[in-house]
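Appendix B, record 7
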Amino acid sequence: MGLHRRALFRHIDGRRVALAFALGMDRFLDFLRGANAIDKLVLHKNLRNNLPLFSALLGIWNRNFLSLPTTAIIPYSQALSRFPAHLQQLDMESNGKRIDKKGRPVDFDTGPIIWGEPGTNGQHSFYQSIHQGTTIVPLEFIGFKKKPI
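C-alpha coordinates (predicted):
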Protein backbone atom coordinates (compact mmCIF):
# COMPACT_ATOMS: atom_id res chain seq x y z
CA MET A 1 0.00 0.00 0.00
CA GLY A 2 1.54 3.30 -1.11
CA LEU A 3 1.74 6.47 0.94
CA HIS A 4 -1.21 8.02 -0.88
CA ARG A 5 -3.38 5.08 0.13
CA ARG A 6 -2.31 5.22 3.77
CA ALA A 7 -3.13 8.92 3.87
CA LEU A 8 -6.62 8.09 2.66
CA PHE A 9 -7.41 6.26 5.90
CA ARG A 10 -6.90 9.43 7.95
CA HIS A 11 -9.92 10.98 6.22
CA ILE A 12 -12.44 8.16 6.42
CA ASP A 13 -14.41 6.57 9.24
CA GLY A 14 -14.45 2.97 10.43
CA ARG A 15 -17.29 1.88 8.14
CA ARG A 16 -15.32 2.92 5.10
CA VAL A 17 -12.17 1.23 6.39
CA ALA A 18 -14.16 -1.99 6.78
CA LEU A 19 -15.48 -1.56 3.25
CA ALA A 20 -11.93 -1.06 1.96
CA PHE A 21 -10.83 -4.30 3.61
CA ALA A 22 -13.88 -6.18 2.32
CA LEU A 23 -13.58 -4.95 -1.28
CA GLY A 24 -9.83 -4.58 -1.55
CA MET A 25 -8.14 -1.25 -2.03
CA ASP A 26 -8.46 -1.06 -5.82
CA ARG A 27 -12.22 -1.73 -5.79
CA PHE A 28 -12.67 0.59 -2.82
CA LEU A 29 -10.96 3.40 -4.74
CA ASP A 30 -13.24 2.63 -7.72
CA PHE A 31 -16.17 2.93 -5.31
CA LEU A 32 -14.93 6.33 -4.12
CA ARG A 33 -14.47 7.50 -7.71
CA GLY A 34 -18.06 6.48 -8.44
CA ALA A 35 -19.31 8.35 -5.38
CA ASN A 36 -17.36 11.40 -6.51
CA ALA A 37 -18.95 11.20 -9.96
CA ILE A 38 -22.44 11.15 -8.39
CA ASP A 39 -21.48 14.08 -6.14
CA LYS A 40 -20.55 16.04 -9.27
CA LEU A 41 -23.89 15.15 -10.90
CA VAL A 42 -25.68 16.87 -8.03
CA LEU A 43 -24.21 20.16 -9.24
CA HIS A 44 -25.55 19.69 -12.79
CA LYS A 45 -28.06 22.43 -13.64
CA ASN A 46 -30.08 20.43 -16.17
CA LEU A 47 -32.69 18.38 -14.27
CA ARG A 48 -32.76 15.75 -17.01
CA ASN A 49 -29.09 15.02 -16.36
CA ASN A 50 -29.24 15.26 -12.57
CA LEU A 51 -30.41 11.85 -11.35
CA PRO A 52 -29.68 12.49 -7.63
CA LEU A 53 -31.75 15.70 -7.65
CA PHE A 54 -34.55 14.08 -9.67
CA SER A 55 -34.65 11.17 -7.20
CA ALA A 56 -34.74 13.53 -4.21
CA LEU A 57 -37.54 15.63 -5.73
CA LEU A 58 -39.54 12.52 -6.56
CA GLY A 59 -39.18 11.35 -2.96
CA ILE A 60 -40.39 14.70 -1.63
CA TRP A 61 -43.32 14.65 -4.08
CA ASN A 62 -44.32 11.09 -3.13
CA ARG A 63 -44.09 11.74 0.62
CA ASN A 64 -45.46 15.27 0.97
CA PHE A 65 -47.83 15.76 -1.96
CA LEU A 66 -49.09 12.22 -2.56
CA SER A 67 -48.85 11.20 1.15
CA LEU A 68 -47.13 7.91 0.34
CA PRO A 69 -45.33 6.81 3.52
CA THR A 70 -43.05 4.11 2.10
CA THR A 71 -40.73 3.45 -0.83
CA ALA A 72 -39.66 -0.01 -1.93
CA ILE A 73 -36.18 -0.50 -3.37
CA ILE A 74 -36.07 -3.56 -5.62
CA PRO A 75 -32.61 -4.51 -6.90
CA TYR A 76 -32.47 -7.00 -9.74
CA SER A 77 -29.07 -8.41 -8.95
CA GLN A 78 -27.98 -10.61 -6.09
CA ALA A 79 -24.86 -8.41 -5.87
CA LEU A 80 -27.19 -5.62 -4.66
CA SER A 81 -29.13 -7.78 -2.20
CA ARG A 82 -28.15 -5.65 0.82
CA PHE A 83 -28.58 -2.33 -0.99
CA PRO A 84 -32.13 -1.67 0.33
CA ALA A 85 -30.83 -2.03 3.91
CA HIS A 86 -27.96 0.34 3.11
CA LEU A 87 -30.41 2.92 1.75
CA GLN A 88 -32.58 2.48 4.84
CA GLN A 89 -29.68 3.54 7.01
CA LEU A 90 -28.66 6.45 4.78
CA ASP A 91 -32.08 7.90 4.05
CA MET A 92 -34.06 7.15 7.18
CA GLU A 93 -31.32 8.22 9.59
CA SER A 94 -30.73 11.48 7.72
CA ASN A 95 -34.24 12.39 6.58
CA GLY A 96 -36.42 10.83 9.27
CA LYS A 97 -36.02 13.53 11.88
CA ARG A 98 -38.89 15.62 13.24
CA ILE A 99 -36.74 18.73 13.69
CA ASP A 100 -34.74 20.90 11.29
CA LYS A 101 -31.03 21.76 11.51
CA LYS A 102 -31.76 24.47 14.07
CA GLY A 103 -33.74 22.14 16.34
CA ARG A 104 -37.18 23.48 15.40
CA PRO A 105 -40.08 21.07 14.79
CA VAL A 106 -40.96 20.68 11.11
CA ASP A 107 -44.51 21.01 9.80
CA PHE A 108 -44.23 18.46 7.00
CA ASP A 109 -43.66 14.75 6.64
CA THR A 110 -40.03 13.77 6.71
CA GLY A 111 -38.45 10.93 4.74
CA PRO A 112 -40.34 7.75 3.84
CA ILE A 113 -39.87 4.30 5.29
CA ILE A 114 -37.40 2.57 2.95
CA TRP A 115 -37.60 -1.19 2.50
CA GLY A 116 -37.12 -3.85 -0.12
CA GLU A 117 -35.65 -7.12 -1.26
CA PRO A 118 -34.05 -8.35 -4.45
CA GLY A 119 -36.75 -8.81 -7.06
CA THR A 120 -36.30 -12.56 -7.20
CA ASN A 121 -36.89 -12.88 -3.42
CA GLY A 122 -39.88 -10.58 -3.03
CA GLN A 123 -41.94 -11.55 -6.03
CA HIS A 124 -44.12 -14.06 -4.18
CA SER A 125 -44.54 -12.11 -0.98
CA PHE A 126 -44.99 -8.35 -0.98
CA TYR A 127 -45.29 -8.18 -4.77
CA GLN A 128 -48.71 -9.80 -4.44
CA SER A 129 -49.83 -7.06 -2.07
CA ILE A 130 -48.39 -4.28 -4.23
CA HIS A 131 -49.91 -5.72 -7.40
CA GLN A 132 -53.31 -6.81 -6.09
CA GLY A 133 -53.76 -4.78 -2.89
CA THR A 134 -55.13 -1.32 -2.23
CA THR A 135 -52.00 0.47 -0.98
CA ILE A 136 -49.94 2.50 -3.45
CA VAL A 137 -46.21 1.88 -2.96
CA PRO A 138 -43.59 3.73 -5.01
CA LEU A 139 -41.06 1.24 -6.38
CA GLU A 140 -37.50 1.88 -7.44
CA PHE A 141 -36.07 -0.91 -9.55
CA ILE A 142 -32.27 -1.03 -9.60
CA GLY A 143 -29.98 -3.08 -11.81
CA PHE A 144 -26.67 -2.88 -13.60
CA LYS A 145 -26.09 -1.41 -17.04
CA LYS A 146 -23.06 -3.68 -17.35
CA LYS A 147 -22.58 -7.06 -15.67
CA PRO A 148 -20.64 -6.59 -12.41
CA ILE A 149 -17.20 -8.10 -12.10
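Remarks on this record: The longest strand covers residues 70-75. DSSP finds seven helices and three strands in the chain.
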